[in-house]
């Protein structure tokens, strides 16, 4: 159906809650990087919303770049083996890199990405994620900025998809079981 209203079970985070948290995160980031140029790296495609909303709140001098990655192999996602679909255009030597993600689920994507970017000679690499699911973690990732810790449920919206849909919802919601069990 074109109307996705029936596909949602409940709203987990409202647009207002997200915006308030973004204000707080941006303040922290501005303070932590005062006087420094930051290269903000968004991980396509999920991070598009948080990237756009976060950088517009920063007063620091920032550059933006993007990576697209994909888990290798068949079966369930996040094998931990990652393939680069689109690499950065930017040289990382001596840069302060801030990776921006929509969600950390198992942590496998970011754990790989962190090691990959750290090997390129940056001055620093930190992570900002809007959502994190502590109960789904398979590896511990040291994350500097976390918007919200959320339960281990299927969430969509604010960049997060189910079969590429629902990314455009301005809030984070849980998906009704009939959508994915049909
Ligand atoms: C999702 C999400 C994170 C990653 C988190 O991306 O946006 O990038 O999975 O999972 P992990 O912590 O278990 O590794 P996905 O691979 O679905 O691509 P997308 O951003 O294009 O939706
Ligand atoms: Mn993603
Ligand atoms: Mg996805």
Topology overview:
Layout: E1 8-13, H1 15-32, E2 38-44, H2 48-55, E3 62-71, E4 82-86, E5 96-104, H3 108-118, E6 124-132, E7 145-149, E8 155-156, E9 172-175, H4 177-180
Parallel strand pairs: 2-3, 2-5, 5-6, 6-7
Antiparallel strand pairs: 1-9, 3-4, 8-9
Helix pairs in contact: 1-2
Bound molecules: 1-O-pyrophosphono-5-O-phosphono-alpha-D-ribofuranose, manganese (II) ion (MN) and magnesium ion.
Please characterize this protein's 3D structure:
- The protein has 182 residues and is an alpha/beta fold.
- The chain has a single domain, classed as Rossmann fold (3-Layer(aba) Sandwich), CATH 3.40.50.
- It is 23% helix and 31% strand.
- The protein contains four helices and nine strands.
- Strands 4-3-2-5-6-7 form a six-stranded mixed sheet. It has a three-stranded antiparallel sheet with strand order 1-9-8.
- Strand 2, helix 2 and strand 3 form a beta-alpha-beta unit.
- Helix 1 packs across helix 2.
- The two termini are 14 Å apart.
- The mean pLDDT is 93.
- 1-O-pyrophosphono-5-O-phosphono-alpha-D-ribofuranose binds next to strand 2, strand 5 and helix 3.
Tally of helical segments: 4
Number of strands: 9
Q: Averaging pLDDT over every residue, what do you get?
A: 93
The radius of gyration computed from the alpha-carbon positions, rounded to a whole number of angstroms, is 16 Å
Large-scale geometry: globular
Question: Which strand order do you get reading across the main beta sheet?
Answer: 4-3-2-5-6-7
CATH fold annotation = Rossmann fold
* Largest pleated sheet: 6 strands, mixed
* Strand residues, percent: 25-35%
